[in-house]
Each structure stands twice: as C-alpha cells, then as structure tokens.
Amino acid sequence: MTTTEPRPSALFVCVHNAGRSQMAAGFLRELSGGAVEVRSAGSMPAEMINPTAVEAMLEKGIDIRAEQPKILTNEAVEASDAVITMGCGDACPYYPGKNYQDWELEDPAGQGIEAVRPIRDEIERRVRVLLTELGVEPVA
Fold this sequence. Notes:
Blueprint: E1 9-14, H1 20-32, E2 37-42, H2 51-59, H3 74-78, E3 82-85, E4 99-102, H4 113-133
C-alpha cells in the first residue's frame, strides 16, 4: 500500500478575482507543474477576467481565458495552506493561523498592456518565492 503526501495548496484573493489573483493562480499552476493545488477568489468577484491580464499572461504562454471569477468562501480558506491577499486592503479579510501574506500590487483593471506587464512580472517573481516556501521546485 502506498501513501501519497497531500499537495500543498494556495489561495489567492483579490477584490474582483479578475486580474492579480488570476495571474498568480495561472503562474502557480504552470510553475508547479500541478504539484500545488491552486485556488483563487474575490471578496466582490467581477463578471469576467480582465482581458488585458489575459493578454499579458498569453505573452508568457499561460492561458487564463477559461478562468471565471469566484466568490471567496471560508471553505476555500480552510482548505488552503497559504492565503495570499493581493492589494485589496480592508476588502480582503485576514486569516490568523494561516501562512498569510499580503502582496501589495497595483490593480491592472482599466490599464493598458504596458502598465500590466510589470504587475504580471512582479506576480511571477513572488510566485517563484512562494514555491520555495511551499517546498516545491519550479518546473520552468
């Protein structure tokens, strides 16, 4: 009989779950090669993913077009090893006892691709650090 260790999990939270958190989730899925369970949610989800965030991620070869904004639930928080809020201040709750991080990032909503690229690149940098903290070797 073999036992498998549970995969570490991370939840990315921003207000609309349409840009920052979706980009972070896309990077974590891609860079972990499926070794991390990835969730994203928003305190007030938008109706669709920010098209400029989609464009910026496609430039990196990561397709987040199929993603849909999701509502933040206590179940998602409880099921996650790490909870990362993304520049949403008081609109995102704090979860004591979790590996909690707040990544202060500019909101890509309403911005052109030139402004979104640096946000995307900073998210990728932080996701790579998170992988190390979760004990997962990046695949790319």
